[in-house]
Amino acid sequence: MAGYLGKRLMISVVTLLFILLILFLLLQFMPGSPFNDEKLSVEQVAVLKQKYGLDKPVIVQFFRYLGNMVRGDLGVSYSLSPNTPITDLLKNRFPVTIKMGFASMMAGTLFGLILGFLTAFFGNRILTFIYNLLTLLGIAVPSYLFAMGFSYVLGYKLKLFPLLYDFRAAGITQVMPVAAMSLGVMAVIARFAKAEASEVMKSDYVQFAKCQGLNNSTIILKYILKNSLMPVITVMAGLLVGLLTGSLVIEEMFSVPGVGSLLTNAISANDYSVVIALSFIYSLLYVVVMLILDLLYCLIDPRVRLGGKPE
Amino acid sequence: MKKRYSVFFICLFLAAVLSGCGKSRNENKEISITIPSTPDTVDPQLVAETNSVFVADCFTSTLYEYNENRELVPCLAQSCDISDDGLTYTFHLKKGLKWSDGRPLTAEDFVFALQRLADPDTGSNSVYFITDCCSIKNAKEVSLGTKPVNELGVSSPDDDTFVVELTQPCPYFCALVSAVTFSPCNEDFYHSTGKNYANSAENLLSSGPYIIDRYEPLAMQIHFKKNPYYMDADKITIPGINLQVVANQQQALMCYESDTVDIISISGELVELAEGDPELFVFPQASLFFFELNQINCPALMNRNIRMALNKSLDREDLVNNLLKSGYTSMTRAIPSDFYIQGDGTDFAEDRERYDEYMAYDTVKAQKLWEQGLSELGVSRVSLTMIYNSSQSSFCEAVKAQMEKNLPGLDIELKPVQGKELIQRRMSGNYDMLFLGWVADYADPTAFLDQFISSAHDGEYNNPEYDKICERIQGVEFVGNTAARDDMMHKAEDMLMEDAALIPVFTKGNTFLIHDDIKGFQQPPTGIGLVLRSLSKEVK
Fold first, then answer.
1. For residue A54, which residues of chain B lie inside 8 Å, CB to CB?
2. CA-based nearest residue in chain A for residue B49
3. Is the pLDDT of residue B63 over 90?
4. Contact status of B45 with chain A (Cβ, < 8 Å)
């Protein structure tokens, strides 16, 4: 186990370094520079580039950045919010996105599991209809349409929830964005949960348990739920990273000060340092989540053996 | 069990209703305004884009400012003496000026502000205000790091006197200093914030009607409260301002209609929806949207007949009325109206049809000129590349369709790019036609005319005679003779239009929805920023 973990960590670090290098190289191909302003002269742009060290060769910039990053310094923003340390920008924004991402994930997973399992176990006509309707909508309709619908009906017409995010009343103002984001999650989770549960219900060991005369609740809790959770967790990991990186449209619609809009704005403003920092953090998140996932596998399913010969 | 659930849901519902409604704008004495994107900075010497200027205007004052009638009046300055050669401006400050923490505001604060602006270490995008819009002595050298900041031509002989030395006359200098960029900055306070100046509410001092009391970089909600030390504090009736960033227009409109905000800025389709609404206001913006024609690298565009044919093949009215709609006005000249008042009291660009001979839509004449041009060039087809910001796609596609339809043998290749690439291409002259929006920073025609000087950047227009005229406009010749200077500026514009040096298309206004109990909302003639002193609200 420890050996496997060590190996995985090594691979992760190398992957991240590689991603960083690629990011640096890619940004060199981006047309324009952060300081292009129709009113600045060529010499003035050159002065700005020099101030931020962008006149140095890429490789020098890369190693300097790496050195600073190890010390926890992600540099300053060039054009999005000139001279503001990126750590400051993220410090305020990441917690908001993470809170909303987790809330959506929790809500979506909870309702998705309930819906999926209920339909699998007691698939009567009404339940199946609700299941079909919700999963179809959740998967087919993009979250911003839900957001628009909620805003119009719940926010504007019924005046139940505020239309904009307000940090002074973060709880209530988050309801609509979280609801809009969690519907998609719910649909995916519900479908996986139902499919897996139905599959497991047909399996030999469940049939055998039934023959042994175990009661239904024991079979469901002990055999079906546990065994159908594994694939669901795999999907959850991907969804979670997606939610943690924030949703550009949802954040923009409700004026949520999260990181989702930051990356797109940074790209169009050619703010290299913000683009690199955010992309790197996203990669880091992904790598970490995948690592945790692999470890979870072996906790849930003893058949998965990590990095060694079969015992 | 069932009962418990229903109690839970009722509680949830009540909680939502109670907190969801919040305070309606009618009960609130403060004013709440939405802006479409987050300001990139609120540091007065760094602000460049319109949203940042909007924010910075709330907490800064300048030597001169525009009042609610869009007239330039002294603000922090009591008066201004201009030397006979027009090169030295001596501003006498009002007595008893104070910063928002009570410390005295002196001429030294203006000196430091401009030195800071010029300093290459500050890295301000707005440095062109003192190197190009006007030329303060040594500003260029200081901004490029070849001279120390203390050699910049600004000084404060005493606490109440601020002196600026220019290298060439600048008749609009008092209008120029009304820009936020020229607002004062206290050196002691600046150094006390370390590297965090203007990064939070605590790290800012206010010289204007309001104090910023809630702010963080790229904030979505910014709050201002009244500045008790402001010189005219008794005239300010609004106790606070709440700026809320709302990128989504529909959302902003719903907030406006459900009475949670007082003023929203809108654009595009929403303006069309609000058409005829008495709460819709359009403020003229000193802007010119035009196609730059590369007359250095593109052989076809070096031909005047071709350039004129392109101009005359464009039905601007159709584009404005059917595609762009409210807030837009077609342009067949380089200077927008409602922007510069001449020495004799008339609008510089009152005559909107002045250049129709060269510019106005006329397919027959356009085709004739086009054929003439083609035969002079000895070709039967011309291909041009049109570069534009990808957000302008539908507009540029319509322009292409019109031009190609009216001018047989013309092929336009569309090339949408991102904003930063557009500017890069413009600087390097890498385009045939380039669609650009230009907003004036100060109320003088030279704000538009100067960009067509050959040395302004590579590509486009290159006419030594035009350069000479522009040089004369900026020279000592017309100091104190506004009428002659106005004539000369007309001459410069005549030359541009006769040469069909560009394809002017439209000018754009700023559109706002403002509730009827809000009075006195106004913008300066440039259309950038806002005039706050006159703002009032009737609280029901």
1. none
2. A37
3. yes
4. no
Q: What is the DSSP string of B5-50?
A: HHHHHHHHHHHHHHHHH---GGG-SSEEEEESS--S---TTT--SH
Phi, psi of A198 (to 5 degrees): -60, -40
Residue B158: Cβ-neighbour burial (10 angstroms; 0-12, 13-18, 19+): exposed
Task: List b or e across A187-212, with b for residues whose CB sees 16 or more CB atoms inside 10 angstroms.
Answer: bbbbbbbbebbbebbeeeebeebeee
Domains and CATH numbers, chain B: 6-61+190-280+511-537 (3.40.190.10), 64-72+83-186 (3.90.76.10), 287-508 (3.10.105.10)
C-alpha A77/C-alpha A275 separation (Å) is 9
Residue type (1 letter), A262: L
Confirm whether A32 is domain-assigned.
Answer: no
Cβ atoms of B107 and B161 within 8 Å: the answer is yes
In angstroms, the CA B226 to CA B241 distance is 8
Environment class of residue A127 by beta-carbon count within 10 Å: exposed (0-12), middle (13-18) or buried (19+)? middle
The reply to whether B426 touches chain A by the CB within 8 Å rule is yes
Residues of A with Cβ-Cβ distance to B422 under 8 angstroms: 32
Cβ contact, residue pair B246, A164, below 8 Å: yes
**Mean of pLDDT values over B386-409:** 94
Q: What is the pLDDT of residue B21?
A: 42
Residue with tokens 């590509």: B459
Contact B220, B55 (CB under 8 A): no
Interface A–B counts its CB contacts (< 8 A) at 159
Grade residue A292 by pLDDT with cuts at 50, 70 and 90.
confident
Which residue among B247, B419, B457 places its CB closest to the CB of A255? B247
**What confidence score (pLDDT) does residue A74 get?**
86
Question: Rounded CA gap, A257 and A38, in Å?
Answer: 29
Q: Is residue A11, in this structure, part of any structural domain at all?
A: no
Whether A48 sits inside 8 A of B123 (CB atoms) is: yes
By the 10 Å C-beta count (0-12 exposed, 13-18 middle, 19+ buried), A215 is classed as exposed
Q: What is the pLDDT of residue B18?
A: 44
Closest of B419, B421, B389 to residue A29, by C-alpha: B421
Tally of residues, chain A: 311
**Domain, as residue range, for A113:** 86-269
CA distances B297 to A52, A255, B302, B421, B459, Å, are 33, 45, 8, 19, 7
Contacting residues for B121 by C-beta, under 8 A, at least 6 apart:
A51
At B3, list the tokens.
Answer: 């009962």
Confidence of residue A119 (pLDDT cuts 50, 70, 90): very high
Distance of CA B84 to the CA centre of its chain: 31
Q: Which residues of B490-522 are buried (b: 16+ CB within 10 A; e: fewer)?
A: bebbebbbebbbbbbbbbbbbbbbbbeebeebb
A103 within domain boundaries: yes
What's the pTM? 0.85
Give the H or E element holding residue B419. Answer: helix B419-428
Please name the residue of chain B whose CA is at the shortest distance from the CA of residue A92. Answer: B216
